[in-house]
Amino acid sequence: MKISRAFWDTSAIVPLCCQQGSSAQFRHLRRQMPDVAAWWGASVEARSALARLLREGKLTAKGLQQAIARLEAQRTAWPEILPSEKIRILAEAMPGQYGLRALDAFQLAAALAWCRERPRGRVFVCGDILLAQVAAQAGFTVEP
């Protein structure tokens, strides 16, 4: 059975927007799972990551513009999981329970809201090691 729908963390979205070592792998996954769901704040987090790559000299000004254009094209196509009281409550427990940073806690809480807190058989695409481990503990199938 081919899974076409997945929740994508920002750590997986950024390599779709600019060339990184993991870009080919995430582009392959994107072709396999074209129906992307993402957290409402993912585009802000992605723009922050892209700006950091520019400051570090890993991205040119033109590359930044192209990456932002790719991000915006994708963002208009995916459903966004909007902030809610339920997501805030889910996220509040995660830093203490799993050691997640605030934005990662919101990402995972949004993924849980996306699947109505039934992660079994649902795919969570993520490039962050800690977040991937916690998502797997929560019951998601983690890619890559």
Brief account:
By secondary structure, the chain is α/β, with parallel strands linked by helices. The protein is 58% helix and 12% strand.
Describe what this molecule looks like in 3D:
This protein is α/β, with parallel strands linked by helices. The protein is 58% helix and 12% strand. Strands 3-2-1-4-5 form a five-stranded parallel β-sheet. The longest helix is centred in the middle third of the chain and has 15 residues, at 61-75. The two termini are 17 Å apart. The mean pLDDT is 95.
Topology record:
Layout lengths: L4 E4 L1 H8 L5 H10 L2 E5 L2 H14 L5 H15 L4 E2 L3 H14 L3 H13 L8 E3 L3 H10 L2 E3 L1
Parallel strand pairs: 1-2, 1-4, 2-3, 4-5
Rounded to an integer, what's the Rg over CA atoms? 15 Å
Measured between the Cα atoms of the first and last residue, the distance is 17 Å
How much is the average pLDDT? 95
- Secondary-structure element string: EHHEHHEHHEHE
Describe the largest sheet: 5 strands, parallel
Low-confidence stretches: none
Give the helix/strand class.
alpha/beta
Strand content is 5-15%
How many β-strands, per DSSP? 5
- What is the 3D shape? globular
Number of helices: 7
Q: How are the strands of the biggest sheet laid out side by side? A: 3-2-1-4-5
Residues in helix, %: 55-70%
Entry keywords:
alpha/beta; single chain; 144 residues; 5-stranded parallel beta sheet; 58% helix
